[in-house]
Amino acid sequence: MKVLRVLNNNVVISRDGQGQEVILTGRGIGFRARPGQEVDPELIVRVFVPSDGRDPDHLAEVFAMIDQDVLRGVVIALRAAGIEGRESTRPTLAIAVADHVAGALERARKGQEIEYPLRAEVGTLYGTEYAQAERLLEEINLHVDPPLAAGEATALTLHLVNAGFASGDLSFTYTMTGVIQQLLAVIGERYGVDVSRSSMTAARFITHVRYMFVRIQQHRQLDGQESTIGRSIRESYPEAVRTAEQLATIVQLRLGDRLTPDEVAYLALHVARMTMDRAPEVP
Q: What Pfam families would the database entry show (predicted)?
């Protein structure tokens, strides 16, 4: 690959084999580099491929503004933790994590501690991402001083979850976390059951709701104009449908989006699965 533009000693813009502009990071990769020169592959730590029409110049400028030692540590840690390979189509994840780590380091040096209010919820609702975040934190701490506290895994988890959304707005992930907790509480109270976050049915419910939030944000809700499957669910699980309609009201109040009939129906199916140990519903 050849250099197109140099942002600083550690960030350059190049072009890949498909002719697409990409962002290359690595210590010294831009030092004395000139447009048209071949990039030393040994200096490349990460290749970022801007997706969704994102402007590579703007992203590269953001990369260049981040503390380069922190950025380098984060991109190496993401790879070592198995979260990202050498090539990434999610540059905003590295930016968000590096920005968070830089802020956390500054607080640590000042002796300031933050107690994340969603720590318990994050660990249970996002088990896979939380395990990844703990591993990521271990890897980050190999490259920063002072090392970050274990509680930072909570914030890193939210950044990993947020990477699945188009907007990159972490506030949406915070809102989603609170809504999922509220939905589970309603189900537990309505049916008088302990909705265990570790159960397979609860895990499936949480996964379904997370994807539902993605569809809501992307304005791509399930909508088969009251599909055959949706009608079948409504006929088979009327009580669960009533619960799902209550949950849909909560979602609308919190997010401002009304769920389609199909979304409500599939929500009802998961509610029914979570409460199968109760007596069968009578239509």
A: CAT_RBD, PRD
Between the alpha carbon of residue 243 and those of residues 66, 250, 266, the distances in Å are 47, 11, 12
How far is residue 12's CA from residue 34's CA, in Å, rounded to a whole number?
10
Question: Among candidates 55, 206, 53, 43, which has minimal Cα distance to 124?
Answer: 206
Helices 261-274 and 228-236, packing angle to 10 deg: 40
User: Which of 157, 158, 138 minimizes the C-alpha distance to 148?
Assistant: 138
Domains located in the chain, CATH noted: 3-118 (2.30.24.10), 170-274 (1.10.1790.10)
Q: Which tens digit of pLDDT belongs to each residue from 160-183?
A: 988 866 555 678 888 889 899 999
Tell me if the pTM is above 0.70: yes
pLDDT in tens, 206-260: 889 988 998 888 888 988 766 788 888 889 999 999 999 999 999 999 989 999 9
Would you tell me the crossing angle of helices 91-109 and 56-65 to the nearest 10 degrees?
20
Identity of residue 263: E
Residue 283 has pLDDT above 80, yes or no: no
